[in-house]
């Protein structure tokens, strides 16, 4: 057996075993997959191995081994840089595309409200989130005041995907759009509005938190009349072409929003709306470009490209009934990629199962790492190394000087001539004895 002299952190020297290639798989299995090893990460696993063993390229092979470990892959959270590039929604006309969501459950108020139907600068309190309640709130409280939009974007909740809601959309001639499951970033604008609305209501509610529905409309007014950084104007002005009359505009006793208007109000309003809409569209386009550049800087595009036939893991946040969130393994699978839908969605199916196929966002997928290109054997292919028995023969050792001996690592100290042994035969010796 060949040993290598190494220097520890305490400046003392010791001998470690140089592991031949055929035995590295066994050593890696014991150092990472064994019950006493704990499936530690690359750094700790390498440090543990370096106490007793050495072989060239140890760190790289450990990293490759852990990357293929199924248990480690399934429990690790997603890497933020392995994601699809940002896809911006094209700028539309006012009230052309609506984003709709349900916020709640919230504390039940004295009027029995517990949920909020949230739309862009609109919110309707509701007692429940059933499909008929949502449909009635949409028609009675929003469409009757703003008209029918071209498209409505929602998540895949049962209330939005019900037959009743599909029938309502069909009667109104509205195109229904859906976000991909477990990917709220598709409706990022609506999610951001929910957070802002919650913050405003938090400043208004009483100590019992049961009067939020009374303050809901005033909170919406505050939001509609504030200037947005992306558009450069308030939502109120983007829709009506003028700023809203508020207590702030009446401080000097005069309506500031009507100053300078002549008798031909209709023509002036039309021109103002055109200018405002053009201004908003330009500002939103610039903001989307800036946000996409910032987002894509930390995105590894080359690591996220998938093609049909690739084996992948699927990230799932759902906790099965009776299971603990503390020990939940986020990655399920493996799955096989069937095809790509659009730019960032994929059609996948489970391997070897009869479960239904899924359409998921690219950010929820992770390629299944394989060690097929490595010379290391796979874990399930490990067998005891083949010990070759051969006749004893005289080993010829070349004469070398200490300055010409090639060491196993670079060093400034004087190298000694390594110990050389002739081949030997292991008889009736278990592999554990050979390792330890």
TrEMBL record:
<dbReference type="InterPro" id="IPR036397">
    <property type="entry name" value="RNaseH_sf"/>
</dbReference>
<protein>
    <submittedName>
        <fullName>Retrovirus-related Pol poly from transposon</fullName>
    </submittedName>
</protein>
<dbReference type="Pfam" id="PF00665">
    <property type="entry name" value="rve"/>
</dbReference>
<dbReference type="InterPro" id="IPR012337">
    <property type="entry name" value="RNaseH-like_sf"/>
</dbReference>
<dbReference type="InterPro" id="IPR054465">
    <property type="entry name" value="Integrase_p58-like_C"/>
</dbReference>
<dbReference type="Pfam" id="PF22938">
    <property type="entry name" value="Integrase_p58_C"/>
</dbReference>
<dbReference type="GO" id="GO:0015074">
    <property type="term" value="P:DNA integration"/>
</dbReference>
<dbReference type="InterPro" id="IPR001584">
    <property type="entry name" value="Integrase_cat-core"/>
</dbReference>
<dbReference type="InterPro" id="IPR041588">
    <property type="entry name" value="Integrase_H2C2"/>
</dbReference>
<dbReference type="Pfam" id="PF17921">
    <property type="entry name" value="Integrase_H2C2"/>
</dbReference>
<feature type="domain" description="Integrase catalytic">
    <location>
        <begin position="90"/>
        <end position="243"/>
    </location>
</feature>
<dbReference type="InterPro" id="IPR050951">
    <property type="entry name" value="Retrovirus_Pol_polyprotein"/>
</dbReference>
<dbReference type="GO" id="GO:0003676">
    <property type="term" value="F:nucleic acid binding"/>
</dbReference>
């Amino acid at each position: 057996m060949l040993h290598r002299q190494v220097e520890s952190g305490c400046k003392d020297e010791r001998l470690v075993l140089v592991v031949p290639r055929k035995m590295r798989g066994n050593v890696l299995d014991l150092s990472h997959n064994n019950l006493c090893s704990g499936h530690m990460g690359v750094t700790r696993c390498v440090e543990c191995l370096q106490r007793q063993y050495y072989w060239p390229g140890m760190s790289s092979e450990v990293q490759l081994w852990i990357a293929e470990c199924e248990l480690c892959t399934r429990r690790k959270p997603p890497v933020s840089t392995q994601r699809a590039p940002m896809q911006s929604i094209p700028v539309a006309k006012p009230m052309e595309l609506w984003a709709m969501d349900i916020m709640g459950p919230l504390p039940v108020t004295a009027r029995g409200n517990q949920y909020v139907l949230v739309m862009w600068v609109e919110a309707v309190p509701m007692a429940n989130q059933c499909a008929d309640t949502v449909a009635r709130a949409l028609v009675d409280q929003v469409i009757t005041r703003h008209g029918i939009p071209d498209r409505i974007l929602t998540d895949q909740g049962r209330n939005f995907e019900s037959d009743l809601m599909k029938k309502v959309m069909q009667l109104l001639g509205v195109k229904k759009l859906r976000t991909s499951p477990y990917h709220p970033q598709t409706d990022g604008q609506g999610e951001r509005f929910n957070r802002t609305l919650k913050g405003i209501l938090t400043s208004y509610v009483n100590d019992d938190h049961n009067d939020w529905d009374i303050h809901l409309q005033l909170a919406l007014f505050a939001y509609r009349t504030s200037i947005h950084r992306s558009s450069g104007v308030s939502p109120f002005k983007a829709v009506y072409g003028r700023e809203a009359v508020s207590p702030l505009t009446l401080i000097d006793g005069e309506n500031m929003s009507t100053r300078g208007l002549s008798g031909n109000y209709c023509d002036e309003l039309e021109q103002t709306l055109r200018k405002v809409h053009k201004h908003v569209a330009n500002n939103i386009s610039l903001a989307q470009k800036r946000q996409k550049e910032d987002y894509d800087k930390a995105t590894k595009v080359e690591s996220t490209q998938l093609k049909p036939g690739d084996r992948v893991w699927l990230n799932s946040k759902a906790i099965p009934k009776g299971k603990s969130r503390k020990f939940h393994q986020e990655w399920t699978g493996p799955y096989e990629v069937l095809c790509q839908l659009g730019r960032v969605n994929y059609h996948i199916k489970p391997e070897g199962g009869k479960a239904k196929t899924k359409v998921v966002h690219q950010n929820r997928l992770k390629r299944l790492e394989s060690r097929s290109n490595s010379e290391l054997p796979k874990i399930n292919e490990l067998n005891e190394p083949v010990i070759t028995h051969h006749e004893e023969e005289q080993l010829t050792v070349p004469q070398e000087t200490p300055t010409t001996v090639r060491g196993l690592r670079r060093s400034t100290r004087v190298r000694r001539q390594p110990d050389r042994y002739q081949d030997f035969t292991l008889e009736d010796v278990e592999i554990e004895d050979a390792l330890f």
